[in-house]
Each structure stands twice: as C-alpha cells, then as structure tokens.
Sequence to fold (255 residues):
Amino acid sequence: MVRNTQLSGHPLILLAETVSTNSDALELSRGGAPSGTVVIARSQTGGRGRLGKTWLSPADSGLYFSMLMRPSLDPADLPKITLAAGVALCRAVSRFSHSGPMIKWPNDLLVDGKKCGGILTESEFGKDPQPLVVLGIGLNVSTPPAAFPEELQGKVTSLEAHSRKPICRTTLLQGILSAIDTIMARMEAGDFAGILEEWRSFDATVGRRLTWVTTGRQAITGVSLGPDNEGRLHIKDDLGRIHEVLSGDIRLQSA
Ligand code: BTN
Fold:
C-alpha cells in the first residue's frame, strides 16, 4: 500500500486473523512501538466495541484496524479524540457513499440511519508523560446482511450498499488514515472548537428523542441538545432538566 500519510501507518502491520487489533496495538505500544503504528486485520475473532459489545469482523468484508498514538494532549482531552476521529471517518467515507455519513454521539458511524462503523478509543498511562492512545476503527464495507445476527437486522448496514461501485478497501483505508493525520494535527494545535463545529454538521442526534442508559443502568429519556464545547452530550429530559453525558449507551427513538 502507498502511504501518503505523515504519521498514520508508519509502520503498518497487516495480520490475516487476530483476536482484536486494539489488543495488538496496546501490546505493541507496551513494547515501545512508535506513534503512528497501525495494526490491520483481515478478520478478528474477538473484535470489541464500546460498553463490552462485540464487533463482528468477518474476513475481507470490512476494515478492522487500530492506530497507536502518543498525542501531545492533556489527559482530560482524550475523550475528544473519539469525536475528532468521527469527523475524519465521515470525511473519508463521504467520498465513497451517495448518502452522507452521520455520527451518533459519541462513536457510531451511521449511513442512512443505520450503523456502518464504530470507533473504540482506549488509553493507558505509563511512565511516559504522554498518554498512550489506541484508536480502533471498524467499518462494514461489503458485509452481507445475512452475516449479522438477528438482533442487529435492520439496524446495521455496509458502505457498499450506499455506493455506486465496489469499494477498494485499501483506497478507503488510505483516505481514513490521511484524514486522521489531518484531524490529529488540528487537535494537537488546539483546534477542538473547529473540529466540533464540523462534528455538528454530521450530528445524527441533535433535536432527536433518545434514551440514555447510564453506566448504572438508569434510563433517562429526553431530547438531544448536541455536545457542549468539551464534547459532552447534553440531554433535556421531559421535566426540562439538562443531563450532561460523559459515557453510557444512547438509544435513538424512531423518527
Ligand atoms: C463500537 O461501535 O462500539 C466500536 C467498534 C470498534 C471496532 C474496531 S474493529 C478494529 C478495532 N479492534 C477492536 O477490537 N475494536 C476496534
């Protein structure tokens, strides 16, 4: 693969099959692998998503990769990387899809309202002053609908179903890595406000009714007001109270 990126994919490690590229990237980082290292697999046997969910990763029908980074960012700003990566993903994916991609806060890539990709950002703090971050991205490119389990039918999609021609996964990967390079440079230059402005143009949740299932399994229903300047989602419940969401599961009510 021709790498037209400054950072992402230097080096690029391609695996036929692995449990999880996020686990591999975390392991490599502990051994001192450089920032920018990307681990990509043709299939994963234990791909994982946020909140303990699994990420279905059948061979050769999706992109499953993780990038190791040691960004010059304050640890408090690390959750913002997920939002920044969402913008990078939308930018890159929009070149391949005739339906505009959108983001369901914080990490779901939607095409035509269905989940097509996801971002899992994990971080560790070791001896280094800079935190270690692994940015994992999973994208359904040509996954046949029948490959998805019953409970996901009608809720998930693949990019190729929204594209006029077959998608070359290498070209798509190059586009995403290049977009990540650009957005991470902007993050490190302190332009989260600009990134957030762009994020809002991809926001699939603002103004929509949704239920937030907190990590304590409490359910709060209300209307999304979108993210605040720090990227935390604000929800206005039916009593007019504003809830600030840092984590947990967001379930959109049907439109
Ligand atoms: C989510 O939707 O909750 C995030 C899904 C992230 C999946 C990707 S696939 C590559 C990388 N390796 C993993 O185990 N997970 C991420």
